[in-house]
Write a structure and sequence with these properties.
Blueprint (H helix, E strand, L loop, with lengths): L1 H13 L3 H4 L7 H5 E2 L2 E2 L6 E4 L2 H11 L4 H4 L15 E8 L13 E9 L5 E4 L3 E4 L5 H11 L7 E9 L4 E6 L5 E4 L7 H7 L11 E6 L2 E6 H6 L12 E5 L3 E7 L5 E5 L6 H7 L8 E12 L18 E7 L4 H9 L6 E7 L1 H24 L6
Parallel strand pairs: 3-17, 9-13, 14-18
Antiparallel strand pairs: 1-2, 4-5, 4-8, 6-7, 9-10, 11-12, 11-13, 14-15, 16-17, 16-18
Helix pairs in contact: 4-10
Amino acid sequence: MLRIFLATAASILLLGGCSDFIAETGPDAINIKVLPGTLVASHGIELVKVDYPTAHAIALRERPPHFSSFAAGSGPASPVVGSGDVLTVAIWKTSPATLFTPGGSPAVVNLPAQMVDNAGNVVEPFIGTLHVAGRTVQQIEGDIAQRLSGVPRPFQVLVARTVNNTRNVTVVGNVAHSMEVPLNPGGVRLLRAVALAGGVTKPVDQVSIQLSRGGRVMVMPFEDILRDPSQNIPLRAGDVVAAISRPWRFIVLGATGGNREIEFQTSGISLAQAIARAGGIDDNRGNPSAVFVFRFSDPQGLPSDLRGVPPVDGKVPTIFEFDLRDPAVLFAAETFPMRDHDLLYVSDAPSADLQKVFNLIGSIVFPYQAYVAAGGTMP
C-alpha cells in the first residue's frame, strides 16, 4: 500500500501539474528566456546574454555624462547687461568744460542711476533712450561716446553696473543656505558657488549635483566633481545648481540572502557588489547560471548590435542574463554597472524544485509512517 501511495504522489507532482504544487519566488530561467513558447524579444523586451566584452561596452555607454562635455568650449561668458540691472554713467571732459560747468576746470558729470527697463533700455540726460540689454559696459560706453561725438573738446565715458539683478546663479537643495550667487566679471566656478552657499549638508558620497542650463539638465555625483578638476566648470547667468541627497536604489528578488530594496551611492556599484550587498546567492536554492538584471535602458546605453527592440517612451525594457558558473563572466559582473531602479533577480535551481517535491512527499509520508508505527491500520 505504501509503495502505491508514494508512486501515485510522485507521479502527480513530477508530471505536468508539478508547478501547481511547488511554491516559487518568481519565474525560472526557462520562463524568462521563453515567454509562453515565444521569444522574449517578440514581447518588446531585449534579452542580452552578458559576457565581459558586452559588460565593458555597456559600462562605457552607461557612464554618466560629465559637466566638462556639457560645457565644452564655453568659458565665462562676457558680462552683458540685462533688464533689471542698474547703471551709472560718468562723463569726464577736459577744459574748457563748456558743456557742463563754466570756467576752465576739468568737469565730471555723474548722471543719475538708471534701471534697465523690460525693453532693455535706459534714458540718460543729454543722451536720450539707449538700448543696453545684451551689451557689455564697454560697448555701452562706446555707444554713449558715439551719441556725444558732436560735443567740442575731448571727453571720456565711464559706465558702471552698480546693482546686478540678472547675472546670478541659483544654488538650492542640500546646501547650508539656498541663495543667488552673483557672477563677477572673472566668473564663478561650480565648486565656488556651492562653497558660497555654505557647502553641502550631507556626506559627500550621498550627494549629487544637478546643473540646469538652457533647458538641459545634467547630474553628476559630487565625489566625481571633487576628484576631477575639469568638472569644476565656469557657471553662466541663469544656471541652477541643485545639491541632491537621494541615494540610488535597486530591488533584489529570488534566491538571494533576502528580498528587499537596497540603497547605494550615486557614484555607482557593480553587479558583483550588488549581489554581495544582497547577501549573495542562496547556496541551497539559487541558480548561479540564471542571474538577471531587469532595466529600462536608454537606447544609447546599449551597443549598436543589441538594439533590436524599438524603445517605448524612449526606453527599452531589457533583461541582462549572467551565467556566473563561467569564471570569465565574473569579470563581467565586476564590470557591469548597476543603475537606479534596477531589479536584480536570481532564479531557483532545478534541484531546488526537486527538493521541494521531496519535502512535499515527506510531509505526506512521515505522518502516515508515524500512524502505522503507533498501531494504526489503513482502510
